[in-house]
Amino acid sequence: MAFNGFDQIFPLGERNDAFAQYFTGQSYLAPLASGSVPVSNVSFEPGCRNNWHIHHGSAGGGDQILLCTAGSGWYQAEGEDPVSLEPGAVVRVPAGTKHWHGAKADSWFSHVAFITPGEDVSNEWLEPVTDEVYGALPKNGVNA
Question: Residue 84 and residue 143: Cα distance in Å, rounded?
């Protein structure tokens, strides 16, 4: 499915207005599966990223799994270097890890996301990724 020249295998979905306060830029959300492990396709316009956030959980729950399907994006855990994401990349974010993810400045980006089920699973939204932090991301080289 193509949108504005952005081609991906899953639906773009609707504007993610319900969570817009936790994003810089425009994102889209397409629920793919419901039930005990809801799965969604999240798409980001160029430059869009979500705020720093933490997924909580116990008894095996609260890990976030990101399956990158289209475009080019970033993932960064607090205190770690940013990781460039391309289609086929898989990220496991352990419960309790402060992190953010989103599109590169010049590319759309999509990932399928879900949270592992368990006990006391919740999400804590934190501060935005500042333009200064985002603007300092690599522009070329292996990690760009």
Answer: 6
